[in-house]
User: Fold Exosome complex component Rrp4 from Odinarchaeota yellowstonii.
Amino acid sequence: MPVNFENNQIVSPGELLAEGDYLSGEGSFKEGGKVYSSILGLAVLKGKLVSVIPLQGPYHPKVGDIVIGKVLNSSPAGMRIDINSFYSAAIFPSSANETGRRGREKFTQFDVGENIIAKIISFDRTHDPILTVDEEGLGKLVGGRIVKIHPTRVPRVIGKKGSMIKLLKEELTDKIKIGQNGIIWFSTNNDLIEDILVTVLKKIEREAHTSGLTDRVKETIKKLKEEKLNVIRRKNP
Assistant:
C-alpha cells in the first residue's frame, strides 16, 4: 500500500508512512522514495502531503496562523502580546493599520490584560512574531471565557471538515473562537452551558488521538445536559 496509516493515527519516529510520489511535510522526511515519521505524533494526509502533528511540545508560531493572546503591555510604539509560546508577539501601529484607518482604531482600543484574536503576518529567527488585527473577525474579544488546550489538539477541536466545531456551535454556543496556539475563547450567558463546554474541550484534548471522538462528544454533551437539568429540577421541584 502506498499509504501505511489512517488520518490521526499515532506514529513513532522512523515509522514508514507512505511510498511513491508523496511529499514530506512537518514532522516527516523522505528518503529513497519513502516518507517516514521523524517524531511521535498524529499522522495526517492532505492531498499528497504527509505530515505528523507532535503529541507534545509548545506552540511554534507560523505565518498565517490565527492566535488568541493577552495584551502584556501597551505604548504608542506598539503592544506586546502573550500568545502561549516561548515567543511573545508584537503589534505595531503599522501592522495594525495595513489597509487604512480601521486598523489604527483597533490598535488604540487594546488595554493591558485584554484578550485579542489576531493573525501572524511575520516571523523568523531574527524577530518575534508580528501580528495584525486588520482583517474581518479579528480584534478585541469582549468578555467571555478563555480555555487553554495543547496546541497540537486544535485540529481535533475543529474536526474533519469542521465537524467538531460545528457540533459545539450547534449544541452549546456559536460564540466560540479557536486560536491555533491552543487558546480557545467562548461566550455564553448560561453557566451550565459554560461548564459543559469546558468539560467537553478537556475531553477532546485528552482523547484527541482516538477515533470516533465526535460521536462520543455528542453523547457526552447530551448526558451532561440531562444531568444538569436533573439537578435544577431537584432544586426547584
